[in-house]
Predict the 3D structure of the following.
Amino acid sequence: MLLLLLLLPPLVLRVAASRCLHDETQKSVSLLRPPFSQLPPKSRSSSLTLPSSGDPQPLRIQTCYLGDYISDGAWDPEGEGTRGVSRALAAVREATQRIQAVLAVPPVQGPLLLSRDPARYCHAVWGDPNTPNYHRCSLLNPGYKGESCLGAKIPDAHLRGYALWPEQGPPQLVQPDGPGVQNTDFLLYVRVAHTSKCHQEATLHELLHALGFSEQLFKKWQDCPSGFSVRENCSTRQQVTRQDEWGQLLLTTPAVSLSLAKHLGVPGASPGVPLEEEEGLLSSHWEARLLQGSLMTATFDGAQRTRLDPITLAAFEDSGWYQVNHSAAEELLWGQGSGPEFGLVTTCGTGSSDFFCTGSGPGCHYLHLDKGSCSSDPMLEGCRMYKPLINRVSRQESRQ
Ligand SMILES: *[C@@H]1O[C@H](CO)[C@@H](O)[C@H](O)[C@H]1NC(C)=O
Ligand SMILES: *[C@@H]1O[C@H](CO)[C@@H](O)[C@H](O)[C@H]1NC(C)=O
């Protein structure tokens, strides 16, 4: 599977109040892809022989802890850092176990090996199309120190080798293939950062980004018209997102469109599921006005108010990478049965829906677990809802 060769963002913890670390890290993360003609064919391992075959099995996620602990500079006499790391890794383990009951793939045969980025190790390629080693690496980049992700080195043992090619003839191997990682479909690199307030509970959210719910990965989603288990006819999806006539970004793939319509009680399929726009960029989160309480909105509102909802699971089905266990979905109450106009900036203030409120008085949070006060936040874009009355320290306050 192509997916398995992607290098994942290592930071899996999410900053307390609002923003998700994913967005910040994605800007500086590049994806590692299957190699093109740089390596002798026989050095390519079986995991590259797409499509992978076999009956889908629970996704085997291998966590690789890149042992550098990042602290925000505080002296740590009590060993708080070490305890923080083990708590964080326990949270990762819990999230990966939960995912195994939800996502399945045909297992990777043999060890999983990541490919190197030729643009990093190779300075020049042979340019004459009439020579046998055309487009292969003719000059290595002297500064190449291996692959890394956000400053953390990826072990050579997990990577394919690379070679230098003469204009004619066989290559000179610089670094052979590593042994790879056995019994693994998905390698997750984890780096633990100590920030003023981290939410281990958000670990699952970050893991879902890494598994495909990400603006950077949307363009790699697959369309498999013959069904998930018949991989031969899969191709890259032509359209995953688009902007509608009012400028709203939508995820437009079939399963999410059906799932949203069902959720809102609308017949047929919706035109797509709105995505949050953050600082003018396409984001990797559902629009919070519409899907408040989903695990994949940008605001983290506490684990007890967050659901792994059916629309998010539909997105994983649309990725074409997984067989999805839809019975693992948790019910999303927000907006249920509220019709096609629900959650729009133009309708949320009109009193047409009990999920939204006007003014600033007290009331009940929609899950009826918390008292609330009618308020807004940047993600709600002027819409107001009863937000829980808890001494939650906002991110701005906590970072003073
Ligand atoms: C699918 O999800 C349900 C509900 O979480 C769970 O009981 C079941 O074991 C899952 N099936 C598989 C194959 O993991
Ligand atoms: C793949 O697509 C081709 C052309 O549409 C079709 O003939 C073939 O039966 C499909 N293969 C499978 C396994 O569905």
